[in-house]
């Protein structure tokens, strides 16, 4: 990693300032200062960095693409709502040095190292904040100030005793390893130690057999338990001597419980664990509404950053509102509003670079072209230059970053597995899918040889009636829709929804209808079972009400309850709705596809979410959650100096109406560092296959609304029973290590 590199910090096409950037000796902090004044401008921790993008992968760097080559450019992306840092190095070599060095520092490591690194970073950050005179030492007064900063309200005598025990040099100050000792004493986990000693005969170690007993009885691990115990010892035991003896110390036990294997989220479900070879309509698909907007719907800013962030979050269905711009150049923005505009070419270029990168899903991506937003024919032709849809072996002239081809004999109901690395366009289409695959044909459907003559004649009569009814609309499409753009629409032809009976009679699996949230709710209320059946064979997209000009969201759960696959949300707006979305799609390697339960994939299903007894399968299950403790909870944003939170935990169940519920613990006064609840909450779930569990930590306030502290949401199917840690996320869905909850989970029928 370079030390003190001169680079350009770019904020816009006209704002490019030279700054010196330097990685500090702790390899955890980067500061930068002005070349002209030498004054330090800012600093940030490596733990704040989410990723590093090379080249012109930001709106700002794309605006200076003609001035600076991509090999000298990179973007540092931070967690949360902090803006990106766009940089231009003096040479390609310098850029690579920084990019590779940052990747080395932020890339995931084996969890024991990551856990230790997070703890060390946490300690160092607090030490630097509390060390007011910057002498590298901390007296007791500074320690008292630190405890307030860390959400700890501790008796002064007890704090002084911990301080004196850690002051091995008897200098009256703590430095280096002395402060680490103080921190370890401060973070002693009595509830974990008690659990450890319950299974340890001598109270000092767990033998291999004792660890096997714990895994079987408490963690409900019933297969390959001895092999798992050996793996855990090798992975989490810090002592080489203990590893050689196949025993686990108390420190190793804690590291296991804080690890991915000790998380409430089943580690086997983090990767792709579901079948991806079923028709598209059998999956819930992570979907974004007006993806290009990063603010409100009326005057908000349009940016390619919206697409990049949605893709990084696992979204596989994006919206592209395409309208005419200068000289017939298509532009993307929210039509008939005052939102800013971005060239369609930039959107295509960005998606071509980021749709299937290392951190993106290989499964198909859907591009939504709202029916009202098509540009005029010249603009459509320009747009199609970036979109090719032909077998490459047949049409070698196919160009552009959006490459998609249809295999010979392709099914009318393709699977995510078959469509890997392909983009599907949803929009208007002239004619039928069969016309695109097989060439022009008669509008009347094919009739098989074993149909009798009367049935065949009746089908032809119905087709003729349909042709008369929709002929004018088809003619209008032909007049306003470029054939080349129509040919790009294959498996997602947009059709109006005219009722379930009409859809069963005339629609095809390759077609899709879009419904407003209000229309979808009415159908759920009036025809719940019909809605579920419809979604078992055809795609449905639901989008937010036009009244949500502030980019707020509706609850996606009620739409998922009837099997709607494409439930579009405003990804830029944090809140419970996006927590549910992230919670559902955090499984399967965040690929953006989740297989629906079997009873929602059957076209003849009797299931209706308003009647849980209509679900085929076992009866209700009981979910019992003992909320034991919390660790190092963050302070509420913008709270007063010295304020300490009064945390409580609320568990919320989202699912079919009969399962909707929430319960909460009492609040703990003045302790955000290591609160202890030891309370048991119990829920009955009638349709667990559709349930999402949301754990929320709030700061209790008796005079006003509680303040949000952190949350974690996951599907019931991904819960791992036993003693588990829940690693909390911020309001933006980003990690806030080392904040966590410690719980005990039991599931019974």
TrEMBL record:
One of its GO terms (biological process) is lipid catabolic process. It is found in: Cytoplasm; Endoplasmic reticulum; Membrane; Nucleus. Keywords: Calcium, Cytoplasm, Endoplasmic reticulum, Hydrolase, Lipid degradation, Lipid metabolism, Membrane, Metal-binding, Nucleus, Repeat, Transducer. It comes from Prunella himalayana. Pfam families: C2, EF-hand_5, EF-hand_like, PH, PI-PLC-X, PI-PLC-Y. Its main location: cytoplasm. One of its GO terms (cellular component) is endoplasmic reticulum. It comes from the Eukaryota. Residues 485-601 form the PI-PLC Y-box domain. This is Phosphoinositide phospholipase C. Residues 118-153, 154-189 form the EF-hand domain. Residues 434-474 are annotated as: Disordered. Residues 436-457 have a biased composition (Acidic residues). It catalyses: a 1,2-diacyl-sn-glycero-3-phospho-(1D-myo-inositol) + H2O = 1D-myo-inositol 1-phosphate + a 1,2-diacyl-sn-glycerol + H(+); a 1,2-diacyl-sn-glycero-3-phospho-(1D-myo-inositol-4,5-bisphosphate) + H2O = 1D-myo-inositol 1,4,5-trisphosphate + a 1,2-diacyl-sn-glycerol + H(+). Its EC number is 3.1.4.11. Gene3D superfamilies: C2 domain, EF-hand, Phosphatidylinositol (PI) phosphodiesterase, Pleckstrin-homology domain (PH domain)/Phosphotyrosine-binding domain (PTB).
């Amino acid at each position: 990693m370079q030390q003190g590199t001169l680079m350009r910090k770019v904020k816009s096409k006209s704002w490019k300032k030279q700054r010196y950037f330097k990685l500090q000796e702790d390899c955890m902090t980067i500061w930068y200062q002005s070349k002209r004044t030498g004054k330090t401008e800012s600093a940030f921790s490596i733990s704040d960095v989410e990723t590093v993008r090379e080249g012109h992968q930001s709106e700002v760097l794309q605006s200076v693409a003609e001035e600076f080559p991509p090999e000298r450019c990179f973007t540092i992306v931070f967690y949360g709502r902090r803006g990106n840092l766009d940089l231009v190095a003096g040479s390609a070599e310098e850029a690579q040095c920084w990019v590779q060095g940052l990747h080395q520092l932020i890339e995931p490591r084996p969890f024991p190292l990551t856990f230790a690194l997070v703890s060390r970073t946490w300690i160092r950050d607090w030490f630097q904040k509390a060390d007011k005179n910057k002498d590298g030492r901390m007296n007791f007064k500074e320690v008292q100030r630190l405890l307030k900063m860390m959400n700890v309200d501790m008796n002064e005598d007890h704090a002084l005793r911990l301080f004196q025990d850690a002051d091995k040099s008897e200098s009256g100050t703590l430095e280096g390893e002395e402060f680490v000792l103080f921190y370890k004493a401060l973070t002693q986990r009595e509830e974990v130690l008690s659990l450890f000693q319950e299974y340890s005969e001598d109270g000092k170690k767990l033998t291999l057999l004792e660890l096997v007993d714990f895994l079987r009885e408490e963690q409900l691990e019933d297969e390959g338990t001895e092999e798992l115990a050996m793996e855990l010892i090798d992975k989490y035991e810090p002592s080489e001597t203990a590893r050689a003896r196949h025993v686990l110390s108390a420190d190793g036990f804690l590291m296991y419980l804080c690890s991915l294997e000790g998380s409430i989220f089943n580690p086997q479900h983090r990767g792709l664990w579901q079948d991806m070879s079923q028709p598209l309509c059998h999956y819930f698909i992570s979907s974004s509404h007006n993806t290009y907007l990063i603010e409100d719907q009326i005057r908000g800013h349009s940016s390619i950053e919206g697409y990049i962030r949605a893709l990084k979050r696992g979204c596989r269905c994006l919206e592209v509102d395409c309208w005419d711009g200068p000289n017939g150049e298509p532009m993307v923005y929210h039509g008939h509003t005052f939102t800013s505009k971005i060239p369609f070419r930039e959107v295509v270029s960005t998606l071509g670079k980021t749709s299937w990168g290392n951190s993106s899903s290989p499964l198909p991506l859907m591009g939504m072209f709202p029916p009202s937003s098509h540009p005029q024919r010249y603009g459509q032709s320009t747009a199609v230059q970036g979109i090719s849809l032909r077998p490459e072996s047949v049409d070698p002239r196919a160009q552009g970053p959006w490459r998609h081809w249809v295999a010979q004999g392709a099914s009318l109901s393709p699977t995510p597995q078959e469509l890997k690395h392909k983009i599907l366009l949803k929009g208007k289409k002239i004619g039928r899918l069969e016309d695109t695959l097989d060439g022009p044909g008669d509008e009347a459907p094919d009739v098989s040889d074993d149909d009798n003559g009367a049935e065949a004649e009746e089908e032809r009569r119905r087709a003729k009636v349909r042709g008369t009814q929709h002929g004018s609309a088809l003619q209008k499409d032909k007049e306003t829709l470029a054939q080349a753009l129509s040919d790009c629409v294959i498996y997602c032809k947009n059709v109006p929804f005219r009722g379930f009976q009409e859809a069963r009679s005339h629609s095809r699996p390759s077609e899709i209808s879009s419904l407003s949230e209000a229309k979808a709710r009415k159908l759920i209320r009036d025809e719940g079972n019909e809605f579920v059946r419809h979604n078992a064979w055809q795609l449905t997209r639901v989008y937010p009400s036009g009244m949500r000009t502030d980019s707020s969201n509706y609850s996606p759960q009620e739409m998922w309850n009837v099997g709607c696959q494409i439930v579009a949300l405003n990804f830029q707006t944090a809140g419970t709705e996006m927590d549910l979305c992230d919670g559902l799609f955090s499984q399967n390697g965040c690929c953006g596809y989740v297989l629906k339960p079997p009873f929602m994939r059957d076209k003849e299903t009797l299931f209706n979410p308003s009647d849980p007894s209509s679900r085929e399968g076992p009866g209700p299950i009981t979910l019992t959650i003992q909320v034991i403790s919390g660790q190092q909870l963050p302070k509420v944003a913008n709270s007063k100096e010295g304020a300490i939170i009064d945390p409580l935990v609320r568990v919320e169940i989202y699912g079919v109406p009969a399962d909707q519920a929430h319960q909460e613990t009492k609040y703990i006064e003045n302790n955000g560092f290591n609160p202890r609840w030891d309370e048991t909450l119990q829920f009955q779930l009638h349709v667990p296959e559709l349930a999402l569990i949301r754990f929320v930590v709030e700061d209790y306030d008796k005079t006003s609304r509680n303040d949000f502290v952190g949350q974690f949401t996951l599907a019931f199917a991904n819960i791992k029973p036993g003693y588990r840690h829940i690693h909390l996320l911020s309001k933006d869905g980003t990690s806030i290590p080392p904040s966590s909850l410690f719980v005990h989970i039991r599931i019974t029928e």
